[in-house]
Write a structure and sequence with these properties.
3 domains
Length: 347
């Protein structure tokens, strides 16, 4: 018969007695884990006397005295004080007057604390209040927005390093610039002083103008001829404008519209020229309009010439150019009179 070996029973190692300090730390950690800042807010609320109460009316102390005992600033104590006060006004916690030193009460959840406590002095300023309100409107915690506002270097680093942050910053600037004329002027100056930005703006502006040209045809059903006449657009031309416009409108926000705008603009210009050439009456009117326009420009240029001090700088080639211009005008007048005579004979 084989005997099985049975190891002797071993008793667990004796545990050291639990330290009261460790137990206290664990209890305080558990309270903070469940309640967050409310635990410290309660310490302030039940130990710091509210305004209007004198030292003889309550065993509580002033915020300054409490801060000295705690080894921190009175401003920090008051931030907890004000957070508790706001929560008390909302009915979440008892008011100061209902609390006494050492009293325990049921505290709200830890997450709620951040809705009342602001850890920065800037939150009490007009600027801080505006930032906090904007953060709430965006559905984020005011403390996060205030932290970013107080560290512009970190914001700059995030914008430089992360495209998505840069896009968010760009959209925020666009939203703000609509209501801030000073910022508009500053951005405009920055653009014109930066060659690359200036070129980019010029390119985008040109693309926008070309898209507007196509959109005007699609939406109004009219075209403007090269000479500046406005006439109704043929149905097929308007449909072509609508097709190009639809392609452009379907582009993603980050896609470059420049190439599409150039193609659409060139196509519409060619089609407009074909419409003009296909209509004899319109073609004649177009040429007449162009001639009048050129004649008026030439007249204005000549009228701008002044001869008051011409004796001080007159040169032979000036006289020669005017004589050649005179001959060209005489030839033009003769051609027009000849055309008038031919028209009269035809009639």
């Amino acid at each position: 018969m084989t005997l099985a070996f049975v190891p002797p029973e071993t008793s667990p190692a004796p545990q050291a007695p639990l330290s009261d300090l460790v137990a206290r730390d664990a209890r305080e950690f558990g309270v903070y884990a469940r309640t967050g800042g409310w635990a410290f807010g309660l310490m302030v609320a039940r130990s710091v006397r509210p305004g209007g109460q004198s030292a003889g009316e309550t065993p509580k102390v002033s915020a300054k005295e409490f801060a000295e005992l705690a080894g921190c600033s009175a401003e920090r104590v008051m931030r907890y004080y004000k957070a508790w006060d706001r929560a008390a006004d909302d009915g979440l916690v008892p008011h100061f007057e209902a609390l006494s030193p050492g009293q325990e009460v049921e505290l709200p959840d830890a997450d709620v604390w951040l809705s009342y406590y602001v850890s920065r002095n800037s939150a009490t300023s007009e600027r801080g209040t505006a930032i906090a309100e904007a953060a709430e409107a965006e559905g984020i915690r005011p403390t996060k927005a205030l932290e970013v506002a107080e560290n512009p270097t970190a914001l700059r680093a995030a914008i430089l390093a992360d495209p998505s942050t840069a896009r968010a910053a760009r959209q925020a600037l666009l939203d703000r610039v609509l209501e801030d004329p000073d910022l508009q002027a500053e951005l405009a100056r920055d653009v014109v002083r930066t060659d690359d930005l200036k070129k980019a703006v010029a390119s985008e502006s040109r693309a926008a103008d070309r898209i507007d040209y196509v959109r005007q045809i699609a939406e109004s059903g009219q075209i403007k001829t090269p000479a500046g006449q406005t006439v109704d657009a043929p149905v097929d031309l308007r449909q072509e404008a609508e097709r190009h416009l639809s392609l452009i409108d379907e582009l993603e926000e980050d896609e470059d519209t420049g190439e599409w705008a150039t193609e659409a603009y060139g196509t519409m210009k060619s089609l407009v020229a074909e419409v003009v050439e296909a209509d004899p009456e319109l073609r004649v009117q177009e040429r007449r309009t162009k001639f009048y326009s050129s004649l008026q420009k030439a007249t204005r240029v000549f009228e701008e010439l002044t001869f008051d001090d011409v004796q001080e700088f007159v040169e032979d080639d000036m006289v020669q150019q005017l004589e050649e211009l005179q001959q060209a005008i005489s030839t033009c007048i003769a051609a027009l009179r000849g055309a008038q005579g031919g028209t009269a004979r035809q009639q």
